[in-house]
Write a structure and sequence with these properties.
Helix content is 14%, strand content 44%. It has 121 residues and is mainly beta. Strand 2 (32-38) and strand 3 (41-43) form a beta hairpin. The radius of gyration is 18 Å and the shape is globular. It starts with a helix and ends with a strand.
């Protein structure tokens, strides 16, 4: 009987752990979604969206950020996905992802900040 209780309790804890939302990755069905550019990186850093979704990169930091596709400094993985300038505090850059695939990006002014957009059909 104790084994059944422990197994049941373990399953409940496992299910609860699987339901926690992470700020590292998120999924969007369609439309528009936002990624914040912060002093500690992109939030969420990784996101899954449907083709046709517009991702708005909003600078919530006190420093400027420049979002662009990988690799640094060429930005050639997804031509056109490049802000082409530093985005000031409070401003945004929007890009509509139409091509299915996994698109890595980074902050051109701080290439250690990076993330990815996974685009599904």
């Amino acid at each position: 009987m104790r084994k059944i209780i422990f197994v049941g309790l373990g399953l409940v804890l496992l299910a609860a752990g699987c339901n926690n939302k992470s700020q590292v990755s998120t999924q969007v069905l369609s439309g528009t979604t936002e990624i914040d550019m912060t002093s500690s990186g992109f939030i969420p850093a990784d996101i899954t969206v449907k083709a046709g979704t517009t991702v708005v990169f909003k600078n919530t930091d006190t420093e400027g950020h420049w979002v662009a596709s990988n690799p640094h400094p060429l930005h050639t993985v997804l031509p056109g996905f490049d802000a082409l300038q530093t985005i000031a505090t409070g401003n945004t850059y929007a890009y509509t992802f139409t091509k299915v695939g996994t698109w890595g990006f980074h902050d051109h002014t701080n290439p250690s900040m990076h993330g990815s957009v996974i685009v599904t059909p």
